[in-house]
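User: My collaborator sent over this chain with a note saying "see what the structure looks like." That's all I know about it. Can you take a look?
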Amino acid sequence: MRPEAGMTTLNRDFLTPTQRCDIMRRGLHAYIRPKLALATALRGRSVLFEMDPADIAGQPDIVIREKQLALFIDHGTGWGAPGLSALSEHRTKRGRSMAKFLRGCAHDLAQTAQLLADGWNVIRFWADDVERDTLGSVDLVFEAAAGKIATSPAAYLPP
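Assistant: Without extra context I'll predict from the sequence alone. Here is the result:
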């Protein structure tokens, strides 16, 4: 509902951060297209996997326990990644969005480091890349499961 001329709006959040997080997680995490596309393609190749396991650090999107492989699908281009034209339109908004994006990157790196320390191999996909080339993403999963791709914390740092 838009305020009429002369009316003011209140920018108050009546939910606690935990409540807001729970609502967002249910709405955004459960039914995203790239994750479902990757899961469908893996199922088509007879891969046994779990989606959103709560018992693994960082709660990866997809886990192949047999191979100690955790898959994350990150939404950088849709959630405030650098280079978006929308970010360049408003400098103040860009600063806030960039800070939010960088906090997300730091969080992702911490999750990845924890999983690697626990003996997992981790693959992080961009959602756009999975949608654009789902079969290529599945091939990458198979290469990692076969041990052809080694993961290390350095692989997740910018060049």
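A starting point for your reply to your collaborator: Residues 78-92 have pLDDT under 50 and may be disordered.
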